[in-house]
């Protein structure tokens, strides 16, 4: 198989049971501007271009990156999407 470049789009958020101080601050600021909302959660978006043998392999690499460095899996959850 040939090596190809894949784009991994990773979203990382605090788990629902973890307090989100940034989310609370943003919610308060939006409400002071007249927006009415139920909840706000603030997270991180990471885009990585990586080399892999296949889309599935790129997904596995991105998951490994999240598990080893990008996400604190004790308090955060993440999603990975692979684009070609």
Any overview of this molecule?
The protein is built from two helices and three strands; from the N terminus they run E-H-E-H-E. The protein has about 80 residues and is of the alpha+beta class. Strands 2-1-3 form a three-stranded antiparallel beta sheet, with helices on one face. It starts with a strand and ends with a strand.
Give the percentage of residues in beta strands.
25-35%
Q: In sequence order, what are the helices and strands, one letter per element?
A: EHEHE
Counted beta strands: 3
Could you give a short account of the major beta sheet? 3 strands, antiparallel
What is the oligomeric state here? single chain
* Helix-residue proportion: 25-40%
Q: CA-to-CA gap between the ends?
A: 15 Å
Radius of gyration: 16 Å
Individual helix count: 2
Summarize model confidence as the mean pLDDT.
96
Which class of secondary structure composition applies to the elements? alpha+beta
SSE topology sketch:
Layout: E1 4-14, H1 21-32, E2 43-52, H2 55-70, E3 76-83
Antiparallel strand pairs: 1-2, 1-3
List keywords for this structure.
84 residues, alpha+beta, 2 helices, 33% helix, 35% strand
Task: State the gist of this model.
With 84 residues, the chain is α+β, with helices and mostly antiparallel strands. It has helices at 21-32, 55-70, and strands at 4-14, 43-52, 76-83.
């Amino acid at each position: 198989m040939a090596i190809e470049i894949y784009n991994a789009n990773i979203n990382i958020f605090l788990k629902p049971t973890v307090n989100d101080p940034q989310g609370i601050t943003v919610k308060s600021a939006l409400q002071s501007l007249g927006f009415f909302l139920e909840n706000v959660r603030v997270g991180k978006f990471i885009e990585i271009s990586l080399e892999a043998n296949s889309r599935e392999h790129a997904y596995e690499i991105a998951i490994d990156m999240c598990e080893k460095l990008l996400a604190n899996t004790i308090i955060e959850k993440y999603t990975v999407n692979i684009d070609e």
